[in-house]
């Protein structure tokens, strides 16, 4: 059996769960701790094994001296665990005593192993007799006897758990495997938990404390399908096929990318980058003339709809530095296009400084504020718009260029409302950058889409409401939000009302 050091096991467990806060200890937690301790105790410790191995080495050495290599009675074939019978420890002890002693006194000459076998039929060979002697001398039941005890105890617990419906009590069910991993996956997960903690403690938090929350920001890219809908629908129980209606199959496989910036004090920069997928990777001259112009959208294009290094540098120049503090720190992930410090330094305006912090690879889902909390709400709002368009059969083709720009402009404008500062602050809190949890708040989707009364009418035209503006608090129907009252232009608001 493999030897262990219990101290190492406990240390690894502490590293795996170091981020959990301490709380009151409950009975079921004590029971789980006892089970884990029982598993650890079932393994031989390093000291146990060392004592056994030293005794075995001495015995085998004496055996090699006393047994000639030509002795036909000597067998060196090791025991096969699959075919070996489980021999009780007391049985081994009796055999060893019979071999060594006679009437309680040491024999002047030990019996031959064949003589011992004549009485103890379960002794297979000479080597095994010396191993039994080593076990008896060490007093440790570290072979099959111990496994037998563990097996019997585990079997009893398993039968008891099955009879008591253990899985139902502990809310354990059969689930589909969503990811297949190798044995090294757990070790990688431990590294991914240690690296973010070190990054937060040694790099991010010192800069946050020195430069203040207003100067500490995060920016991230997020991809959106050109047509984005909810993946659920109401239907009858047992329905095997649930189709969902869309405007374009092509729009469900092609995407575009946004990049917005938030700060730790709860602000969102008033302009963001939107990269659309275009043939040739750029807008044509006629398209640029007639393309929808939103005051808060910096529109660019690429052949894939994803950002390249050139797009990132343009974002720094037009969407970050004009709105950043004099001495700012920006958190970015480890994408290759965002790590060219020399090219970025050339874009820094006179009188401003920038500290670029790169989040460790693989840790963005844990400590990137935009990724941890913000974009989930953003995409939920986009689904609200596009689902309403399909439900009411509205004449809006959401996957068209101008409509994508308008939709993202509305969403960005709502996120910029001071009303939603707490949700941006919460994104930094959830990612671990500060310890003060914001007071209870409503998210953008909760306030804008879920807080309107069922009997409330549009502020302008008295038709059924669609959303409430996070700035002016007015309830709006879809048409007044999208086209404006009497086609005066889409609802882009900056008049904040508490």
UniProtKB/TrEMBL annotation:
Residues 429-479 form the Transposase Tc5 C-terminal domain. InterPro entries: Transposase_Tc5_C (IPR007350). This is Transposase Tc5 C-terminal domain-containing protein. It comes from Hypsibius exemplaris. The lineage of its organism: Eukaryota, Metazoa, Ecdysozoa, Tardigrada, Eutardigrada.
């Amino acid at each position: 059996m493999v030897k262990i050091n219990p101290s190492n096991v406990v240390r690894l467990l502490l590293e795996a769960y170091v981020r959990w806060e301490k709380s009151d200890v409950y009975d079921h937690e004590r029971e789980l701790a006892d089970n884990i301790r029982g598993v650890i105790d079932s393994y031989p410790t390093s000291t146990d094994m060392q004592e056994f191995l030293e005794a075995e080495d001495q015995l085998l050495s004496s055996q090699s001296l006393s047994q000639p290599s030509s002795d036909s009675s000597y067998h060196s074939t090791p025991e096969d665990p699959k075919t070996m019978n489980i021999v009780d420890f007391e049985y081994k002890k009796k055999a060893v005593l019979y071999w060594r002693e006679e009437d309680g006194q040491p024999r002047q000459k030990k019996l031959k192993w064949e003589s011992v076998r004549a009485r103890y039929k379960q002794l297979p060979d000479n080597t095994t007799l010396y191993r039994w002697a080593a076990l008896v001398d060490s007093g440790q039941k570290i072979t099959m006897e111990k496994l037998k005890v563990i097996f019997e105890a585990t079997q009893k617990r398993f039968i008891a758990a099955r009879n008591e419906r253990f899985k139902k009590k502990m809310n354990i069910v059969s689930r589909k495997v969503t990811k297949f991993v190798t044995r090294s996956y757990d070790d990688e997960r431990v590294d991914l938990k240690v690296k973010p903690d070190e990054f937060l403690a040694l790099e991010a938090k010192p800069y946050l404390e020195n430069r203040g929350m207003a100067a500490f920001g995060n920016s991230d890219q997020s991809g959106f399908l050109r047509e984005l809908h909810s993946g659920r629908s109401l239907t009858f129980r047992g329905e095997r096929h649930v189709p969902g209606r869309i405007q374009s199959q092509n729009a469900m496989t092609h995407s575009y990318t946004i990049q917005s910036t938030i700060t730790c004090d709860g602000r969102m920069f008033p302009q963001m980058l939107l990269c659309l997928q275009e043939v040739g990777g750029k807008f044509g001259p006629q398209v640029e003339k007639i393309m929808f112009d939103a005051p808060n959208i910096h529109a660019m294009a690429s052949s894939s709809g994803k950002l390249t290094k050139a797009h990132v540098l343009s974002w720094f120049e037009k969407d970050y530095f004009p709105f950043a503090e004099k001495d700012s720190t920006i958190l970015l992930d480890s994408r290759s296009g965002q790590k060219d410090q020399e090219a970025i330094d050339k874009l820094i305006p006179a009188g401003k400084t920038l500290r670029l912090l790169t989040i460790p690879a693989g840790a963005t889902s844990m400590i990137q504020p935009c990724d941890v909390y913000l974009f989930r709400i953003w995409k939920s709002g986009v689904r609200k718009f596009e689902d309403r368009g399909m439900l009411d059969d509205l004449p809006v083709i959401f996957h068209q260029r101008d409509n994508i720009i308008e939709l993202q402009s509305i969403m960005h404008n709502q996120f910029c409302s001071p009303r939603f500062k707490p949700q941006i602050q919460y994104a930094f809190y959830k990612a671990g950058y500060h310890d003060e949890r914001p007071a209870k708040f409503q998210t953008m989707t909760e306030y804008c889409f879920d807080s309107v009364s069922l009997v409330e009418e549009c502020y302008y035209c008295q038709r059924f409401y669609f959303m409430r503006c996070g700035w002016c608090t007015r309830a709006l129907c879809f048409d007044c939000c999208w086209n404006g009252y009497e086609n005066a232009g889409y609802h882009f608001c900056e008049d904040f009302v508490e």
